[in-house]
Specification:
Strand content: 15-25%
Radius of gyration: 18 Å
Structural class: alpha/beta
Number of helices: 10
CATH architecture: 3-Layer(aba) Sandwich
Helix content: 40-55%
Number of domains: 1
Distance between the termini: 51 Å
Largest sheet: 7 strands, parallel
CATH class: Alpha Beta
Length: about 260
């Protein structure tokens, strides 16, 4: 039976992979894009490519009312929301599209990554509270916010992602006797526009090749690999992992010195 999936950050690398994988198995998806930053036409074009299985909606992840309105509208149209995948986030480079001043950028990092995750998690649990079905809440932290510290990692980036890990554990503790399963995924160096902008863009070709070769397995993680984890967490068998903060760094979290050695 098709499930109703709500995905924030659906135009990002991991978000798009999640949308495609859910619709490929017959689910219906509502995905979001940044209300005043993303290209409306691109989001609509992506939705149209999903053969009527996906709907694109704008959202402001720093505003609780925008989050509530978007979730309630999706719930009304879909009839229910079975799984929330909260993949929306900004990084040390992409946050510059929201503000040029460092202090304002740090504020937006917390507003979108931490406050946005808090509000959408709370509102999702609240508005679906009458559902008898098992609901899945899947957040995204990062290896630098959930497991390890790395040289030159922007403080507000790591702190905001660490807040998501705490939020996930706390919500899991509060829902051990409910039908809500809560998880977070902490990806490592993933081949997304966000990671490219924050880490790879400023490198020469030789520097980039050396950097990637130094990573675990000598390569970047692909968005589809992270999306496969999301698909599993959205399935019934994941309940035993309720409360897990999943290290999806391909080994970087257990050997963080690989990045230190590049200095």
């Amino acid at each position: 039976m098709p499930r109703n999936i709500f995905i924030t950050g659906g135009m990002g690398g991991i978000g798009q992979s999640c949308v495609r994988k859910f619709i490929a198995q017959g689910d219906l998806v509502t995905f979001t894009f940044a209300e005043d930053k993303a290209n409306f036409a691109a989001a609509e074009k992506f939705a149209e490519s999903c053969n009527g299985k996906a709907t694109a909606v704008a959202i402001d992840m720093s505003d609780a009312e925008s989050i509530r309105k978007t979730l309630l509208t999706a719930q009304s149209k879909m009839g229910s929301i079975d799984t929330l995948v909260n993949a929306a986030a900004v990084g040390s480079a992409t946050v510059t599209t929201y503000a040029s001043d460092k202090d304002q950028q740090d504020s937006m990092m917390f507003a979108i990554n931490a406050y946005g995750a808090l509000k959408i998690s709370e509102i999702f649990i609240e508005i679906t509270s009458e559902s008898k079905n098992v609901r899945k809440l899947i957040n995204f932290s990062s290896v630098g916010g959930g497991f390890q510290a790395f040289p030159h990692f922007r403080l507000s980036d790591g702190m905001s992602k660490a807040a998501v890990s705490f939020l996930t554990r706390q919500l899991a503790a509060e829902n051990v006797h409910t039908n809500v399963d809560v998880f977070a995924i902490s990806p490592g160096a993933t081949n997304t526009g966000m990671f490219q902008a924050s880490t790879l863009v400023g490198m020469s070709e030789s520097e980039r090749n050396s950097f990637i070769a130094s990573l675990p397995k000598g390569r970047l993680i692909e968005p589809d690999e992270i999306a496969e984890i999301v698909i599993f967490l959205a399935a019934p068998a994941s309940t035993s992992m309720h409360g897990a903060i999943i290290d999806a760094s391909m080994g970087l979290a257990v050997r963080p010195g690989l990045l230190s050695e590049l200095e």
